[in-house]
Amino acid sequence: MKYYPLFVHNGLSLKPTLAWLAILSTLPLSVSATDADSPEYTDTIELQDSYVRPDYVEIERLRDTKEIIVIPKEEIQERGNRTISDVLKSVPGISVDTTGQGDIDIRGQGSETAQRNLQVLLDGASITTLSNHPYSTNYDVVPIEQIERIEIIPGGGSVLYGSGTAGGIINITTNLRGLKDPKSSVLAEWNSDGYRLNGSIGSKMGEKFSFLGTATKLDRDLYYKDTYRNSEYYSAGLRWDLMPNQSLLLRASHLSEESQYIKTLTANKIKQYDKDYVPPDKTVTVGVDSDGHLIKKNISGYLTGDRDIDSYNLSYQNDLTEQLHFISDVFYTDGFYTNNANWEQRVDQKSQGAKLKFDIGYWDDSNILLGFDYSKQDASISYIGSYKKDSAGKYYGVPYNFSYEKDVKALYALNSLKWDKYIFTQGLRREQAKWSFDKGGTVTGAGTSNRWNTAAELSAAYLYRDTGRVYARMNAATHCLMACKLAIKRL
Q1: What range does the record give for the signal peptide (predicted)?
Q2: Helix%, strand%, coil% for the chain, nearest 5
Q3: Residue 123: left if φ>0, alpha if ψ -120 to 50, beta else—which one?
Q4: pLDDT digits (tens, 9 = 90+) for 44-98
Q5: DSSP state of 343
Q6: How many C-alpha atoms does 460 have within 13 Å on its Cβ side?
Q7: What backbone phi and psi angles, to 5 degrees, belong to 158?
Q8: Where would a tag sit more exposed on the chain, N or C end, judged by fewer CB atoms within 10 A?
Q9: Using CA of residue 339, residue 341, residue 345, residue 348, what is the dihedral sign?
């Protein structure tokens, strides 16, 4: 018996590198020009009857009892979206900051709350950062040409995804996730807002190997005058089908980006200047000379940001039997971000982890999902936080050093029992989160926190047929979702 989801929302500087020249010289070129004044993607995404089957068993288990918005590649291409932010802006209930930082807010939580309660995944691995000082996560980390689909779970899924997901989950799937049909292509597009170039080289090597390499360059003007984001992105993936029921997939990517943007703007300024607003220059202290005098410098009122991110993923899948499947993902990300909010500041971020899952089937289309999650995130920042005078009246800089670390280990189980037209799910997650911080330099202090979080879920759904079509309805009286989070602080 086949079941369908309760909620389904479909429809949703110019220097060419050697890599670019190599790709463009080996592939046929198709060029298109678009009108910058063409309508934005503001159409309401309508409910459809079809569902794009996900590559993730977690989403497969949630789709019966949760609202899942699916934006497939075809819709993204038809609408002419240029970035992930463009795609997300089109979804009702989701707002994306237009100033340049790309903060995402689902259902009006507010930017600060959203940063704490939203988890964004790239090919199943979290890219949500640990520290947002001065790093504010910009989720436009993958060129739009590499996106296969985006799945959004507005209600979150604490049992399967853990703490920090109460505000929602956004899962971005790239063409490197499956590598089932790698293709070669090239694209060049330009308009009054900038240009983008994309090239891919894909091939199947016999029956067991598939390869895909991509390169993308984006130069794009943002909404306000003289604001922009320029980036280069390179990725490669190799799939090895060891046996008909086993596959190994290795993916790697590199992103370099520079940007200039406006963080905040008052309503009066927007009304007065709209797109033509230019922030006034500001005077900042950039250091101390040999005589102990402060060095002042006038800089632009715009904020600037540079970013580099390297990511590596290894996935292994084994269909042990028709009813028993093992899935594992190992990931590692390393990068930095700088901005000039308070002169030059740089934060280094690193994350690594693994997800192990056993999917056990029984009866007709019922399943138990058992999983183990491990992740470790590190962030550090060093800068001159203030300037003081010594006994001789000379200024000196006060160094600030901060380091943060978060380790998470979790076990969870989710049972999906399907009987006739009814679906019942029961889930439990036990998670240990260890936080630590250390302040060096003149400002000193350190601390640790060991917390246990528990999430439980109980839900039921009923599906019925009418006039030859499949409909889905959930009775609120039979649906109970508990997100019980118990924090136990160990000294």
Answers
A1: 1-33
A2: 10, 55, 35
A3: left
A4: 444 333 333 447 788 888 777 777 888 888 888 888 777 788 888 878 777 776 5
A5: B
A6: 11
A7: -65, -30
A8: C
A9: negative
Structure tokens at 169: 């989950």
How far apart, in whole angstroms, are the C-alpha atoms of residue 87 and residue 90? 6
Neighbours of 14 (CB within 10 A): 8
Could you tell me if 369 and 429 are in contact, meaning their C-beta atoms sit under 8 angstroms apart?
A: no
CATH 2.40.170.20, applies to 7-478: yes
Q: Which of 242-246, 399-403, 444-448 has the highest mean pLDDT?
A: 242-246
What's the burial of 403, exposed, middle or buried (CB within 10 Å: 0-12/13-18/19+)?
A: middle
Give yes or no for a contact between 331 and 352, defined as CB atoms under 8 angstroms apart. yes
Nearest to 383 by CA among 346, 415, 422: 346
Is the separation of the CB atoms in 121 and 149 below 8 Å? no
Please say if the pLDDT value at position 130 is more than 70: no
Question: Cα dist. 364→2, 361, 367, 478 in Å?
Answer: 9, 8, 9, 22
Give pLDDT, residue 8: 34
Judged on CB neighbours under 10 Å (0-12, 13-18, 19+), 50 is exposed
Residue with tokens 């609202």: 67
Q: How far is CA 338 from CA 193, 313, 382, in A?
A: 24, 25, 11
